[in-house]
């Protein structure tokens, strides 16, 4: 990863300092975020929520949400993607890092990221659907995912060879 990429990711991840649990609680959630029962209730509401009703983009500037993901959550998603790839699409590495998101929300956002990775607007500030690029370098991300996949296949091949012996 180039130094400029690390700076971009660091700039995005520095938003974590501004992140608060209350930002992710929906406006109509009446449970207290600090209580254990309130968290369980909030998580179950999130999991039962229809992700198709979440708009592509809402808000602007620092409060921009893309498919319900704020800037800090988008940065965490991209960091996880660059570290683990898509992990056979089971999202096991993404769930602990995006605790307030359901599997369905992560999967829907991942589909959007995959579409952005094959988008032909490399020099534009926005993807063809209007979502800001936010420092995502598609060629480098695709190369990183390819390397992760090759390593996983090689490790799996070695594991299978050892089991056959």
TrEMBL record:
Residues 23-164 form the CHD subfamily II SANT-like domain. Residues 1-27 have a biased composition (Acidic residues). InterPro entries: CHD_II_SANT-like. One of its GO terms (biological process) is chromatin remodeling. It holds the Pfam family CHDII_SANT-like. GO terms for molecular function: DNA binding. Residues 1-44 are annotated as: Disordered. It comes from the Eukaryota. This is CHD subfamily II SANT-like domain-containing protein. It comes from Eleusine coracana subsp. coracana.
């Amino acid at each position: 990863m180039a130094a400029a990429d690390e700076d971009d990711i660091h700039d995005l991840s520095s938003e974590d300092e501004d992140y608060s649990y209350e930002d992710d609680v929906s406006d109509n959630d009446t449970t207290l975020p600090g209580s254990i029962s309130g968290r369980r209730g909030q998580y179950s509401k999130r999991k039962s929520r229809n992700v198709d009703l979440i708009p592509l983009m809402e808000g602007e500037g620092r409060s921009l949400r893309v498919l319900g993901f704020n800037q800090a959550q988008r940065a965490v998603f991209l960091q996880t993607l660059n570290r683990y790839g898509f992990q056979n699409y089971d999202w096991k590495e993404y769930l602990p890092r995006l605790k307030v998101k359901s599997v369905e929300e992560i999967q829907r956002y991942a589909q959007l990221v995959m579409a952005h990775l094959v988008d032909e607007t490399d020099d534009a500030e926005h993807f063809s659907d209007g979502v800001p690029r936010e420092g995502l370098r598609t060629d480098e991300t695709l190369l990183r995912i390819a390397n992760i996949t090759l390593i996983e296949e090689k490790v799996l091949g070695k594991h299978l060879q050892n089991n056959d012996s």
